[in-house]
Design a protein that fits this description.
single chain; 249 residues; alpha/beta; globular
Length: 249
C-alpha cells in the first residue's frame, strides 16, 4: 500500500509535461485519487488517460472563482473530502524592469499570487482535518536573476503565504508547506526560451548547479509526495528546496 492509500488530492497545473503531471502520477501511485486541473483541456485529458483511472481531469482556470467552485464541487461529490492540495499552476516570462508592462504584472501576479490564493481559499471547506497543502514556490524568490523580477516577486509572495497559512490552519491540524524547485527540465522551460534555444539554455544552467545537471519533474514530485504523506507530520511552514544544491552551496 502507498503512503496515500484512500486519500483524495488536487493538483493544479496538472496537464502540461512537467511538475504537475509528474506529481499527479506520483500521488496516484501512492494510492490517492487525484483531481487535476488546468487551462489546456486537450493536454489535461491526455495526462489523465496516461496516468489512469485514479485521475480525474477538470479543465479550468485558477484565476476564475467559478472554475474553482466547479472543481471543488466534484471533490465534494466524491464524498471523502480533500486530503492533499498541491497548488502548482504558475506562469513566467522574461522582462527587465524597463520592459515590464501592466499586462505582464497582471498576468504574472494574477496567476501566481491571486490564483494560488483562490485555489487554497476555495479549498478550505473541503479540506479534511489533518490535510496537507503544498505551495509551489521557486528558488528564484531568493535570487536576483535579471529579467525574472516579476516571477521572483510572485514566488516570494507564495512563500510568504505558506508561512501565514501554516499558522492560521494549525487548529485544524492542516499542514502548509512550500517547495522551491531549482532548474527543472519541463515543457515550460522550452516554451519560455523557445525550442531552438532550449538545449543550450539547459546546458548552460546545468553548469551552475552543484549536482551537475538540471532536475527531473519526478524528483520534485517525490518531494511533494513526502510533504503530502504522514511521514512529514512534524513538518509545518517549511520551504523544501529541490534544486540540486544551487541555492545551498
Amino acid at each position: 500500500m502507498g503512503t496515500l492509500e484512500g486519500k483524495t488530492a488536487v493538483v493544479t497545473g496538472g496537464g502540461t509535461r512537467g511538475i504537475g503531471r509528474a506529481t499527479a502520477a506520483r500521488l496516484a501511485a501512492e494510492g490517492a485519487h487525484v483531481f487535476i486541473t488546468g487551462r489546456r483541456e486537450a493536454e489535461l485529458r491526455e495526462a489523465a488517460e496516461s496516468i489512469g483511472a485514479a485521475v480525474t481531469a477538470v479543465p479550468g482556470d485558477i484565476t476564475d472563482p467559478a472554475d474553482l467552485d466547479r472543481l471543488y464541487d466534484l471533490v465534494r461529490e466524491r464524498g471523502q473530502g480533500l486530503d492533499v492540495l498541491f497548488a502548482n499552476a504558475a506562469t513566467a516570462s522574461f522582462a527587465t524592469l524597463d520592459q515590464i508592462t501592466v499586462e505582464d504584472f497582471d498576468r504574472t501576479f494574477g496567476v501566481n499570487v491571486k490564483g494560488t490564493l483562490l485555489t487554497v481559499q476555495k479549498a478550505l471547506p473541503h479540506l479534511n482535518d489533518g490535510a496537507s497543502v503544498i505551495l509551489n514556490a521557486s528558488t528564484n524568490a531568493d535570487r536576483g536573476a535579471a529579467a525574472f523580477g516579476l516571477y521572483a516577486a510572485s514566488k516570494a509572495a507564495v512563500r510568504s503565504f505558506a508561512r501565514t497559512w501554516a499558522s492560521e490552519l494549525t487548529a485544524r491540524g492542516i499542514r502548509v508547506n512550500a517547495i522551491s524547485p531549482g532548474p527543472i527540465d519541463t515543457s515550460g522551460v522550452t516554451e519560455l526560451v523557445g525550442e531552438e534555444n532550449s538545449a543550450a539554455y539547459k546546458a548552460q544552467i546545468a553548469t551552475q548547479v552543484p549536482a551537475g545537471r538540471i532536475g527531473r519533474p519526478e524528483e520534485v514530485a517525490a518531494a511533494v509526495a513526502f510533504l503530502a504523506s504522514p511521514e512529514s507530520g512534524y513538518v509545518m511552514g517549511t520551504n523544501l528546496y529541490v534544486d540540486g544544491g544551487a541555492n545551498q552551496i
